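[Automated response] Your request has been received and processed.

Submitted sequence:
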Amino acid sequence: MTSEPQEPPGREEFVELAHFEVDERSVRLLEYDYCREHDVVVLGRAAAADGPVTVGMLDPGRRKLVAEIAKALGRPVKAVRLNAWEVRRALDQGYRVVTAETEGTRLLLRAVRDFSFDREGEVPGLLDEILGRAVELGASDVHIEVYEADVDVRFRVDGLLRQVATPLSRDNVQAVLTRLKVLADLDIAERRKAQDGRVKGLFRGAGKEREIDFRLSVVPGPFGEDAVLRLLDSTTPILGLERLGLGNETLAAFERLITNPEGLVLVTGPTGSGKTTTLYAAIARVNTPENKILTAEDPIEYHFPKTNQKQVSAQMGFADYARAFMRQNPDIILIGEIRDEDTASAALRAAQTGHLVLATLHTNDAVRTVSRLRTLGVDPGMVAGCLLGAVSQRLLRRLCPHCRREALPAPADAARLRLPGDAPFFRAEGCEACQGRGYKGRVGVYELFVMDGELADLIADGAPVHRLRTAAVEKGMKTLLEDALDKARAGVTSIEEVLRSVPYRIIHG
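Generated structure:
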């Protein structure tokens, strides 16, 4: 028995499955059983193109197998090396095979325009319709609120809550909540304590499928239980740094911060201000084969290829992971949130010992990050020595480009923002494209505080926040309000959005 001729070992490097499109028609150019037997899979849009076909396999050096595949396809084959897990994942995806990984999908959702008010089909169809409609509208959260006489359902879209008329009522809401608890593996008999869980869903719309995770929070109240579901769409592509809305100078400065070999970079702002999106864009920028990246998140909203992402749990919190990561020889550490003294201390120690640490923190503005770290028990000298910079951000609704019109601000708004009364801004009237709301999508506004020697000395000396802010502005820092007003002047957003989203203290600072 002669062995199959092979190329000398070590000539082919591994590629990443994420670099290729998995096209159903192309994968099916080879029989499923044959692909499983030989651990091969067709990659890219081979069925819709001519020329060589890219085939992933464990060992591209198997010349006899490559020739056999080329003969079966009737085209030349370009063999690339994948590992066994990647080959089988692509194969199962192309053939729509249900595996242990997809068996956890519990809800099958579809695009819904009008709710069915047929009372005979309330549960589970009603829940599926509500969540399907939320996904279709691009909602970030679904609120189910139980009152004495009725039940409200509200979707948070572009940062604002919108009430939705549904067949949900006092008569059927408990059945819907019970189904949610079953799907999330919660205790259906427990109605006196808050419970948290996750529900998996598969949304089908526009000829495509995508997996949606729902983070569920159930809280008891005087008239029953309220539920809030946060929608986490892992198929949403990560925005590049250049698409976040950072100005050119701010973008260049932020890129310099996140490509440092060591130090601490913080992203700050309230819940729902886009901090995770900014951190993920930063990770995408520095995610190279030369960097080992470790993350501690709650929850993991997007899975990066070849990145060691960890889900925070009751057994392992942010501080526990931050300490454990130090023994894993990382280059970059991401901590989803610094919320206590232990986590702050662990993050600063990691930044002190030759690692780049990215993290979020809840503060009103970038400069106030310094005082927040002080209240968490961090020594000012350590802050001065480790902090590279902090970015504060908010999300403002975008004006609809189809119906926005130039308009002067209201006199009261102009006075509040100290604007000249004849300064041109924009207002949207509402049209079919934005469903009459005048806004469509959101844009970030930012304030970037970058450390230098003079600012570090002020921090080490315990200088108050207002003195730090004055010094940073004198050095050219663009404030959150200035960035928001610039975007309002450009017609990206409105004066009303600036007043709604930028904190009072910053406006009247």
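Summary generated for your ticket: Residues 125-137 form the longest helix (13 residues). The radius of gyration is 26 Å.
If you did not submit this request, please reply to this message.
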